[in-house]
Structures are given as C-alpha cells and as structure tokens.
Amino acid sequence: MLVTHEHLELYRTTKKFVEDELNPHVDEWEAAGIWPAREVLKKMGDLGLLGVTKPVEFGGMGLDYSYEVMFAQALGNCTCGGIPMGIGVQTDMATPALARFGSAELKREYLAPAIAGDVCVSIAVSEAGAGSDVAGVKTFARKEGGDYVIDGSKMWITNGTQSDWACMLVNTSEGKPHLNKSLIIVPMDAKGIDRRTKLDKLGMRSSDTAMIFLDGVRVPQRNLVGQEGMGFMYQMMQFQEERLFGAATGIDGLFNLIQQTIDYTGQRQAFGQSILDNQYVHFRLAELRTEVEAVKALVYQTTQEYISGKHTPEHIAMLASMCKLKIGRVSREVTDALMQFWGGQGYMWENPVARAYRDTRLVSIGGGADEIMLGIICKAMGILPSKKKFEARRAAESKAAA
C-alpha cells in the first residue's frame, strides 16, 4: 500500500484527536463502563472522520479503503480498545452495506446522520445461539401491511445501550439459511425493543454492550437494505472491512506497549542491573516488534489488493481473515510477554499492559472466532474436509449433468 502525504495528514489528524479528546478521559470512561458516544462521534463528524470512504453526496469523503486503514491505525493510539471498537462499529460495521446497497432515501435518512456524527449506530447480528455461526440467526421479520414485524433477540451488541439505530440481520423467509436473511435498519426507539440488559465484560470496559429483545417491533419495509434474502451475503461483505479495520487498529497500540515496556524495563533494577539488560528480555522485545511489523505489512498488502479490484472476493476474504487471525494471536502473544516483564506492576488492573491483555483477548473471539478465520483460509486454499469434498463433487457433477 502506497502511503501518500494525504494518508499521513489523515493519520495525524486522527491521532491528534485521540490524544486530545479520547486519552485524557479513558480512565473515567473505563470506570463508568460506557463512553459518551454521541459527544465523541459529533466531534469526529465535524472533522469529517466518520465518512472517509462513504459517498460524497451523503457527507463522506469518497476515498478508497487505504485511507480508512490509516484512520483505523491512528485510532489504535487510544489507550483502551473499547472506544476504537465503538467508533469502528459506526464507520466499518453498521454502515458499509447501507452505503453500498441502500436506497437513496435510506441513505439520506440513516447514513448521512451517521457520517455527520448526529447519531450513534450499532450492528446487530449475533445472538445467544448464533455468534460466529451467522447462518444460525433465529430472529424473524414477517411482513404485515407495509411493515416488517420483528421478534427475537440480539446478543453482545456494541453501542447497544445508546445507539439510535441498528443494522440488523434477520430471517425474512423460511428458506435456506444463506438465502433467507435480510439486513434491515431498525430504529432503537421503536416500540417493543428492550435493551436495558447491559453486559459486564472482561475487557473493552468503556464500550457499552447490550442484549436486545424484540417483541413485535414494527419497521417500515422501506428500511430494507438492498434486496430481500441477500442479507447473509451483504453481511459477509461487511465482515471483510470489519476485519481489516480491526487488524489495523491493533498495530499502533502494540507498538506503543512495546515502547512503554522498553522504557519501564530500562529503569527497573533487579540483581544489580536493569531488566532490559538481560539478553532474553531485549531479544524477546525485538521478536515481538518484528511480529507486529509483519502484521502491519500483511494489513497493508491486503488493503492494496482490496482497493486494486484485481482479485476475487474469495481471495480478499482469505487475506482479511489472515489479518484478523494474526492480529488476534500476536496481540495475545505480545501482551502476555510484556506483562511478564512488568512483573507485579503489570498485574495491576489499571496498568496499560493489563488493560490491553484484557481488551485484545476479544479479537480472537468477536467478529468471527479464530476457528472461523482458519476455515475461510482453508476453503480459499482448496482444503476441505472429506465430507464437504464429496458434497462439492456431487454438486459439480449434478450441475454438469443438467
């Protein structure tokens, strides 16, 4: 990925916002278990940071995804993971399908305010029995008059206690699980929505997370994003940008933690020398830095191949899955190793490494677990279990015979 002056200016603007408007308040928001989403998002919207890749006619910048990656990387300088995650839901999880497939009317009503920072939004896919297994979603929307009437529940919804609307994946027919789902924009003040259940999490403490119950919730059918029955496919497309965004946000935070550890171990004395003077310690820090640089290179390569338009969706899905898999595993490796070098101080709740240790553990679970990423990668490599190989061969033979 070629990093231009324009990329660097966006990076600097975002990083300055993080340092001036987010980091001074992180401890307060972490303790409260919620961030003031509307206040923060409005400031970001005024700077044009919420619509980097979104259409110009709805308030966005209309830039390619390489700029979003620079934005995400700069957000990683936040001293917690919860706030960048909440922002990422607004920019890269709840709005990509709406921007790409939504009607002009729907974009004016819902996308433009999200880009301006006038609203806070959520993506509502997961359910208690359907996390990484997106096809297992049970929430159902039936048609009645000019409305959809929605019943069901959603679990682990980021920004869920304060969002104004959610891009929700629901079943709209009884057909095959990959062909019966649709994305619908659901106003969160609609009658029949209960989102009072705020979830208590190990990490990402400043990000509010809700369980949402829907009982006969009426939504106009014009709130359908794109075509009915295409929701699963749209969501799979949204996942690619979500995974790239998530990988990019992890990079600078790990760099910063490594540097903080160098500074701390250089000052901490034990047995007549600094901890950093031990060859194992500084060699290990060099290894960890190398791992993070490798993830950064993979993210940049994936971004370049994505924006080039020269590769198949399957190839991009493979690379994006590799990015998510690698940042999750490297984050776990780095934070665990650094905590050891901080000793007892690293085990304290408010220590930056301890916070990152808790926050980054989600990366290998949320947005598709590591095992899902490995399955996507294997499929792209042509590696399938014997049963699936047999079924694929039978399907190919039937198609040829027809």
TrEMBL record:
Signal peptide (residue range): none
One Gene Ontology MF term: flavin adenine dinucleotide binding
Keyword list, A-Z: FAD, Flavoprotein, Oxidoreductase
Entry's Gene Ontology BP terms: fatty acid beta-oxidation using acyl-CoA dehydrogenase
Acyl-CoA dehydrogenase/oxidase C-terminal domain boundaries: 229-381
Domain Acyl-CoA dehydrogenase/oxidase N-terminal: 4-118
Family assignment from sequence similarity: Belongs to the acyl-CoA dehydrogenase family.
Protein name: Citronellyl-CoA dehydrogenase
Organism encoding this protein: Sinimarinibacterium flocculans
